[in-house]
Amino acid sequence: xxxxxxxxxxxxxxxxxxxxxxxxxxxxxxxxxxxxxxxxxxxxxxxxxxxxxxxxxxxxxxxxxxxxxxxxxxxxxxxxxxxxxxxxxxxxxxxxxxxxxxxxxxxxx
Length: 109
What we know:
The chain has helices at residues 3-29, 49-53, 94-100, and strands at residues 46-47, 56-57, 60-65, 68-71, 104-108. The chain is α+β, with helices and mostly antiparallel strands.
Protein backbone atom coordinates (compact mmCIF):
# COMPACT_ATOMS: atom_id res chain seq x y z
CA UNK A 1 0.00 0.00 0.00
CA UNK A 2 1.45 3.37 -0.91
CA UNK A 3 1.88 6.22 1.55
CA UNK A 4 -0.95 8.33 0.09
CA UNK A 5 -3.51 5.59 0.70
CA UNK A 6 -2.14 5.01 4.19
CA UNK A 7 -2.52 8.73 5.01
CA UNK A 8 -6.11 8.79 3.69
CA UNK A 9 -7.02 5.71 5.72
CA UNK A 10 -5.36 7.19 8.79
CA UNK A 11 -7.19 10.52 8.30
CA UNK A 12 -10.54 8.78 7.90
CA UNK A 13 -9.88 6.66 10.99
CA UNK A 14 -8.97 9.72 13.07
CA UNK A 15 -12.06 11.56 11.82
CA UNK A 16 -14.35 8.64 12.70
CA UNK A 17 -12.69 8.28 16.09
CA UNK A 18 -13.22 11.99 16.80
CA UNK A 19 -16.91 11.75 15.81
CA UNK A 20 -17.38 8.68 18.02
CA UNK A 21 -15.69 10.43 20.94
CA UNK A 22 -17.84 13.54 20.48
CA UNK A 23 -21.01 11.42 20.46
CA UNK A 24 -19.90 9.60 23.58
CA UNK A 25 -19.21 12.87 25.42
CA UNK A 26 -22.54 14.26 24.22
CA UNK A 27 -24.40 11.23 25.53
CA UNK A 28 -22.82 11.55 28.98
CA UNK A 29 -23.34 15.31 29.29
CA UNK A 30 -26.71 15.84 27.65
CA UNK A 31 -28.70 12.63 27.46
CA UNK A 32 -28.32 11.25 30.95
CA UNK A 33 -30.53 8.22 31.40
CA UNK A 34 -31.19 5.88 34.25
CA UNK A 35 -31.20 2.08 34.04
CA UNK A 36 -34.76 2.02 32.70
CA UNK A 37 -33.75 4.20 29.77
CA UNK A 38 -35.82 7.18 30.89
CA UNK A 39 -34.21 10.59 30.83
CA UNK A 40 -32.94 11.71 34.21
CA UNK A 41 -33.88 15.22 35.26
CA UNK A 42 -30.89 17.48 35.41
CA UNK A 43 -29.69 18.54 38.83
CA UNK A 44 -31.33 21.81 39.84
CA UNK A 45 -29.82 24.33 42.24
CA UNK A 46 -31.12 24.71 45.76
CA UNK A 47 -32.44 27.95 47.24
CA UNK A 48 -33.26 28.92 50.80
CA UNK A 49 -36.59 30.45 51.80
CA UNK A 50 -35.18 34.00 51.95
CA UNK A 51 -34.01 33.76 48.33
CA UNK A 52 -37.39 32.47 47.18
CA UNK A 53 -39.27 35.21 49.03
CA UNK A 54 -37.48 37.80 46.86
CA UNK A 55 -39.46 36.46 43.86
CA UNK A 56 -42.74 37.79 45.19
CA UNK A 57 -44.41 39.89 42.51
CA UNK A 58 -46.32 39.47 39.26
CA UNK A 59 -43.20 40.13 37.15
CA UNK A 60 -41.01 37.66 39.04
CA UNK A 61 -43.00 34.97 40.81
CA UNK A 62 -41.69 31.73 42.31
CA UNK A 63 -43.70 29.29 44.38
CA UNK A 64 -42.79 26.28 46.51
CA UNK A 65 -44.59 22.96 46.44
CA UNK A 66 -43.30 19.87 48.21
CA UNK A 67 -39.78 21.39 48.44
CA UNK A 68 -39.76 22.03 44.68
CA UNK A 69 -39.48 25.60 43.40
CA UNK A 70 -41.37 26.68 40.30
CA UNK A 71 -41.23 29.94 38.33
CA UNK A 72 -44.85 30.83 37.54
CA UNK A 73 -44.10 34.28 36.14
CA UNK A 74 -46.55 34.86 33.32
CA UNK A 75 -49.07 32.38 34.71
CA UNK A 76 -50.61 34.73 37.26
CA UNK A 77 -54.34 35.09 36.70
CA UNK A 78 -57.55 35.25 38.66
CA UNK A 79 -58.25 31.51 38.69
CA UNK A 80 -55.52 29.46 40.35
CA UNK A 81 -52.14 31.20 40.42
CA UNK A 82 -52.42 34.54 42.18
CA UNK A 83 -49.83 37.20 42.96
CA UNK A 84 -50.49 36.65 46.65
CA UNK A 85 -48.88 33.18 46.30
CA UNK A 86 -45.57 34.52 44.95
CA UNK A 87 -42.59 33.67 47.14
CA UNK A 88 -44.63 31.26 49.26
CA UNK A 89 -45.45 27.58 49.60
CA UNK A 90 -48.75 26.51 48.09
CA UNK A 91 -50.49 23.18 47.69
CA UNK A 92 -50.76 21.92 44.12
CA UNK A 93 -52.63 18.95 42.80
CA UNK A 94 -51.05 16.55 40.30
CA UNK A 95 -52.61 18.37 37.35
CA UNK A 96 -50.76 21.62 38.11
CA UNK A 97 -47.52 19.85 39.02
CA UNK A 98 -47.55 18.24 35.56
CA UNK A 99 -48.14 21.66 33.95
CA UNK A 100 -45.25 23.19 35.92
CA UNK A 101 -42.70 20.40 35.47
CA UNK A 102 -40.79 22.41 32.83
CA UNK A 103 -40.84 25.51 35.03
CA UNK A 104 -38.97 23.95 37.95
CA UNK A 105 -36.02 26.16 38.92
CA UNK A 106 -34.68 24.28 41.91
CA UNK A 107 -35.33 22.77 45.28
CA UNK A 108 -35.76 24.22 48.74
CA UNK A 109 -32.63 23.90 50.85
